Amino acid sequence: MADNNDDDILAKEERAAVDLKVTAPGRLSTEHIRWDATGRHRGVLMTGSDGADGPKAFYIHIEAKPDRIEQVESMLADILSCVEREPATGPWFGVRYSDTVFAIFEAFPDIAGRNAHVAGGGGEIFRDLERMNDHLVQPAHVAKLDILMSKRTFA
Questions:
Q1: Is the four-CA dihedral 125, 130, 99, 144 of positive or negative sign?
Q2: Helical H segments across the chain, by residue range
Q3: Which of 56, 61, 83, 93 counts the highest number of beta carbons within 10 A?
């Protein structure tokens, strides 16, 4: 696997090519996954773009290996612990779709807040390639989103 400044994120030109093929968050097709010679994946595949400044979000699709479900649940708890200390990370939800499929939805006031999150503890967990390859069937799919509207509190 080639090293770059963002070991877990595709190089800019690769990312641009993937953006043309992946139009919605979710499970990646095998054509989008890059594997190294030892069968390891990059841990994370980020799609989307920053766009104009304004409220932003990440939607992260995570698929656990069947024998690593508890470890992925623990990883989500570790990420929550990190984001609770991040002032620019707003609403954060860790959800489960099925026994092995999870997701995170997290919101930020702007691009700078989203970038601060990536540089912080939550992002650090996703940069742990050993953990990602041990726990996940494929790279976590991180989709950059624009927030168009929101209801910020529960009634």
A1: positive
A2: 12-21, 69-83, 111-119, 121-126, 129-135
A3: 56
